[in-house]
Amino acid sequence: MTTMTDSSVREFKMPDVGEGLTEAEILKWYVKPGDTVTDGQVVCEVETAKAAVELPIPYDGVVRELHFPEGTTVDVGTSIIAVAVGDGAAAEAPAQEAAPAPVEEAPAEAEEKKPEGRQPVLVGYGVSTSATRRRPRKGAEAPAQEAPSAAAAIQAEMNGHGQPAPAAPAAGERPLAKPPVRKLAKDLGVDLATVVPSGPDGIITREDVHAAVAAPEATPATVAPAPSPSPTAASPTSYDTARETRIPVKGVRKATAAAMVGSAFTAPHVTEFVTVDVTRTMKLVEELKQDKEFTGLRVNPLLLIAKALLVAIKRNPGVNASWDEAAQEIVVKHYVNLGIAAATPRGLIVPNIKDAHAQTLPQLAGSLGELVSTAREGKTSPGAMQGGTVTITNVGVFGVDTGTPILNPGESAILAVGAIKLQPWVHKGKVKPRQVTTLALSFDHRLVDGELGSKFLADVAAVLEQPKRLMSWA
Questions:
Q1: Does the active-site annotation cover 334?
Q2: Tell me: the pLDDT tens digits for 121-162?
Q3: Which of 381-384's residues contact partners 24+ apart within 8 Å by CB, and which partners?
Q4: From the candidates 67, 210, 269, 445, which is the catalytic residue?
Q5: Alpha carbons 45 and 62: distance in angstroms, whole number
């Protein structure tokens, strides 16, 4: 190998891939010394306190050195990989040609080229399902394909443009697209394997993705969700002794622990409870399952509980607020980003539905279904967990009657929903078996007083007891 000068080596430093995060753990390297990399190619996956993120390299060259092994936590701003660029890269190229391609990357991935004028984006696609392996892929028919969302795959981009369309990627090949384009495709529910590229060297562009969404000949793609690791399995970095197992607290679990401690000892919590007859709500759930407007959507009690909460916020807007300590102000939000607490193998996360207040009931059903499935597959992005205004936590799925939930940091209220059970209940003067649940509302007493909190919780209960109020109060 020809000797290089230091001036031909570029050091890629660990970026701040979140809002002021100070460190990240290297989960997986996708390259090794001697590999050729191109501007925008993903070289590693790291886990921050919020999620797992793929990092693209911002220049072309040959990998000279990986400074840290997998499993190492590195401070933001520390160099993690050295890449020979320019004359130095050319000098090392012959050695690279003789090296075999890494088994975890499709050959096409190392050949991606960056469209002119584009800047690399450092934020990736969200949480992977394991701390030591890459995000799950599709089945054996496409081993190099990125795990798709559960949305529909779309037809070719050039149809109807009066021009011949380039050929789509061959089966088993990884489509060529820059990280921002992959993120756009994921958000829009487009399977890149079905998009016909129009960019140079077969690269899929943003325009290709948008055109695919608009294509009339859309056909749904049914893909089974990737299996998640058992929540009870020990972390890969845990270790056992004869009488105990020690699991390092890091990543999402570390951030959750710190946030909960900060919330519990910063915001003065008050929790109120109400037990409510939800028999009519359960009946409505069954009726909606047969409604053609909800075909293909998951309809369950959480959907109507979420809608009841949104209606109650409309009647009690002061609950949807936050406390600005620096300005000493209460900030009332005129929008609702509805958080749903989700237990995942990485720990508790709270992704939220943006502008949930503006969604119809079928739209809300679709958003809830996508949020839950994405969280279970470990693909929740950092952006999906930011900006929440109020949260629902459904402890009833574990058979628990109720609890005293801790506020998600920055929010003023969180509603816990207990198990819905058949219980004896006085109905129209007689004791009858009815579907009953207990709701628990925790709120920040600095900005939500007892009267406001009580009215809000009572409104949620009233809607669930008489769901026809969804129409009269909405």
A1: no
A2: 333 333 333 333 444 444 444 444 444 433 333 333 334 444
A3: 381/51, 381/123, 381/124, 381/125, 381/126, 381/127, 382/17, 382/18, 382/48, 382/50, 382/51, 382/53, 382/123, 382/126, 383/123, 384/126, 384/351, 384/352
A4: 445
A5: 19
